[in-house]
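Thread: flavin mononucleotide complex, take 2
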Amino acid sequence: MITTRFTEKFGIAHPIVQGGMQWVARAPLVAAVANAGGLGFLSALTQPTPDDLRKEIARCQELTDRPFGVNLTVLPTISPPPYAEYRKAIIESGVPIVETAGSNPAEHLADFHAHGVKVIHKCTSVRHAVKAEQLGVDAVSIDGFECAGHPGEDDIPGLVLVPAAAEALTVPLLASGGFADARGLVAALALGADGITMGTRFMATAESEIHKNVKRRLVEADERDTQLIFRQLRNTARVADNAISREVVQRLNEGAAFADIRDLVAGARGVKVYESGDLDHGIWTVGMAQGLIRDIPTCAELVERTVREAAEIITGRLAAVLGRPAGIAS
Ligand SMILES: Cc1cc2nc3c(=O)[nH]c(=O)nc-3n(C[C@H](O)[C@H](O)[C@H](O)COP(=O)(O)O)c2cc1C
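Output below.
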């Protein structure tokens, strides 16, 4: 067992979190993570309406008795989804933990706390983490430059971002971005984090309901096979390297405006990749951690292995460095 401030405060067996993932974090995956003793987050906005989210939460509750959460990603858009209605669905469904991301969580925090829902805010800079702690969030998940999705614009990798955040915060801290195995978990703990959030690694599990071609690609791809799109728009996103992402980068470099590439990056095209397995159909999200993925285990196998091997590294290889008898490793 690895016990940290995170496992104690949130009542989760292992310090391993599956972050919210648009189009990927659905009930079977989230329930499998919960049943494995980790903390999984459903993606609220994957559900087209707040009522659909209620149904998805109920489906997850049927699949597990353990705690799980919902990710609420709040992005500035021209026609925003009904966030307050999604929030209400989360609260009324009895979900105990929420992962907020995308922007300042202030608008939602008081309501969640008034109803006993704990909030983990995910962000990509120390200054936003400190702000979130001042607002009263229960924990912070900090996403390094390696991460899938939106790494922000500062380009600070986890090796610097995690200890910098740990120094600045008093609430429990999750290290996110680039983590895929026990070595990452031990490193995160050494850097001052209380656990890890993984996205990309959980895509390549038996219970993640994406096409097998995508999972196979995650095993085959290496750490270089991502693209950073939307840099020029200061809305950077790390996505899979494919024909579409390369075209988007090239056209923005040539001076195209967002309107010129809107069709290429449409979510409707991206979701087709996960459904059909056609890897070049649209933009799909993935992180550098794919370079560390070698197999497609069940969530139970993945979580058990990560925790067991982390203990072996700590009591074996690391203890041996100090010249003490190695506990488990040879
Ligand atoms: C397919 C995919 C979709 C994602 N969608 C979201 C999202 O909608 N909201 C969010 O806050 N994070 C999203 N993320 C980010 C993850 O929650 C997590 O922070 C990130 O994957 C950590 O980096 P890693 O992929 O290197 O583990 C997504 C990640 C992936 C892989």
